[in-house]
Specification:
- The complex is a heterodimer of chains A (300) and B (162).
- Chain A is of the alpha+beta class.
- Chain A is 33% helix and 23% strand.
- Chain A contains twelve helices and twelve strands.
- In chain A, the strands form three sheets. A five-stranded antiparallel beta sheet of chain A has the order 4-5-8-6-7. Chain A has a four-stranded antiparallel beta sheet with strand order 9-10-11-12. A three-stranded parallel beta sheet of chain A has the order 1-3-2, with helices on one face.
- The longest helix of chain A has 22 residues.
- The radius of gyration of chain A is 20 Å and the shape is globular.
- Chain B has two domains: 77 residues, Beta-grasp domain (Ubiquitin-like (UB roll)); 72 residues, [2Fe-2S]-binding domain (DNA polymerase, domain 1), CATH 1.10.150.
- Chain B has five helices and five strands; from the N terminus they run ββαβββαααα.
- In chain B, a hairpin with a 2-residue loop joins β3 and β4.
- Chain B has a five-stranded mixed beta sheet, sandwiched between helices.
- Chain B is globular.
- By secondary structure, chain B is of the alpha+beta class.
- In chain B, α2 crosses α5.
- The chains are: A alpha+beta (300), B alpha+beta (162).
- Chains A and B meet through β1, α2 and α6 of A and β4 of B.
Chain lengths: 300, 162
């Protein structure tokens, strides 16, 4: 099908875009890359009265690093973020997860911030930004506010933006030196929508893990980081029993729904297995870029 | 405004039209410019049949509004070769049976055109990874991969590289 008729605006500065948001009283949508919006328009799932095309606002197309903080502008494409040297160096989990985000053609035009706003439950980046402790800079013509991932993301396909607000930047703080990371997603075929995904970041010092961050995607509404799973490892000596306990906690914490691809019980099993794998992989990688002795050997 | 004037360069030629803002880039190319080589499959961003190059990067034209490409340089399948003078990539698809029904082929050729510009010597794994972008329901993909490998050979020979 074809998109319904709509008014079209193409502001070329952030200021003009924010004014446009304040002025519009009807239904409207922001258009950046378009790979989530256009399919919905084509299927007429949504029929906004106005499309505000922000893709020409060059001032928002950046990925920069300043004093350890990585700043990603609203129009930075997935490809730009994925291949940014500071991102690869400082938070390698982003690159690892990006291998599962859409495909090359999608990443050419799709934007990180667009994907975060859309908040598809199978999308990888909302989880990754939660794990990294990223903050979300939101602006309107009235002012700006900065939200944590927890405050920004709501249920599936929803976020906490007010109608006159726009996500203008995501900030990733400096990550612990020598942290270990792992992201694993399973799907029916590589590149398909993810059935379930898990991510883990942790720091390992003298056999004790700290700053443990573990979260899931598509395993239940509103799940980002899951404290109950993290608590099984935080400030504890790593051993097989601790990892098993985290894995059990994951099975109990997730609330997956059944669909045509997999039932809920299978997905709970997957959550338990992925938890084990992401922890083991993160442990093996921990300390590899610093002087902290690295953990090697399998714990199960 | 529901309508807009746009000016783009398509396969080296200037095109200027007044169009509805809601017009998809795929429809603009096919219906307004008469370039029907670009195929429309799912109109959902899944199949990749409509892939074209905008300013050198692969884009799904069914999930892009034509008005978004104002001032851009667009390349479609028609820019590659002619029936009596196929481009190396087209020649390779011909030789290695990289197509059966041919519906996905324009998209396949365009994503591989982008790949070969970025990386003139991709290995089989890199070709497979890029092939992940597009669907083919006939070939089982193996012949497409072999076709791209053959295209690499043909292009190396053309450049005089052994």
């Amino acid at each position: 099908m074809k998109p319904p008729v709509f008014d079209y605006e193409q502001p070329t500065s952030l200021r003009a875009a924010l004014e446009s948001l304040s002025r519009n009283t009807g239904t409207f949508k922001l258009l950046a890359g378009g790979y989530s919006l256009l399919p919905l328009l084509n299927a007429r799932t949504i029929s906004p009265e106005c499309i505000i095309d922000i893709s020409r606002i060059g001032e928002l197309r950046y990925v920069t690093e300043e004093a350890g903080t990585i700043r990603i502008g609203a129009l930075a494409t997935h490809d730009q973020v994925m291949n940014n040297s500071a991102v690869i160096r400082e938070c390698p989990i982003v690159f690892e997860a990006y291998k599962h985000v859409g495909n090359h053609t999608i990443r050419n035009r799709g934007t990180l911030c667009g994907s975060l706003c859309f908040n598809d439950p199978t999308a990888e980046m909302p989880l990754i930004m939660s794990l990294l402790g990223a903050t979300f800079v939101v602006r309107s013509s009235w002012g700006s506010r900065t939200l944590s991932a927890n405050d920004f993301f709501k249920g599936p396909f929803t976020n906490s933006l007010m109608p006159n607000e726009m996500l203008v930047e995501v900030r990733i703080p400096r990550q612990p030196a020598g942290h270990g990371h792992s992201f694993i997603e399973i799907s029916q075929r590589y590149g398909d929508r993810g059935l379930a995904a898990a991510g883990c970041m942790l720091t390992l010092k003298y056999g004790v893990v700290s700053d443990v961050r573990i979260g899931f995607r598509n395993l239940g509404e509103g799940l980002g980081r899951v404290r109950a799973v993290e608590a099984e490892l935080e400030n504890k000596a790593v051993n097989a029993a601790a990892i098993d306990a985290a894995s059990t906690a994951a099975r109990q914490s997730v609330r997956p729904e059944a669909d045509m691809h997999a039932d809920a019980e299978y997905r709970r099993d997957v959550a338990a297995t992925l938890t084990k794998r992401v922890i083991e992989t993160a442990l093996m990688r921990a300390g590899q870029t610093s002087h902290v002795p690295s953990f090697s050997g399998r714990l199960s | 405004m529901k309508e807009r004037d746009i000016q783009v360069t398509v396969n080296g030629r200037n095109a200027k039209k007044r169009i509805e803002a809601r017009m998809l880039l795929s429809d603009f190319i096919r219906h307004e410019l008469g370039l029907t080589g670009t195929h429309v499959g799912c109109e959902n961003g899944v199949c990749g049949a409509c892939t074209i190059l905008v300013d050198g990067t692969a884009v799904r034209s069914c999930c892009t509004l034509a008005v978004q490409t104002e001032g851009c340089h667009i390349e479609t399948i028609e820019s590659l070769g002619r029936v009596n003078k196929l481009s190396p990539l087209q020649q390779a698809f011909w030789e290695k049976h990289g197509l059966q029904c041919g519906f996905c082929t324009p998209g396949m050729l365009m994503i591989m055109t982008e790949l070969l510009r970025q990386n003139p010597n991709p290995d089989r794994a890199q070709i497979r990874e890029r092939l992940n972008d597009n669907l083919c329901r006939c070939t089982g993909y193996e012949d497409i991969i072999s076709s791209v490998e053959r295209a690499v050979e043909l292009m190396r020979a053309e450049r005089g590289v052994q």
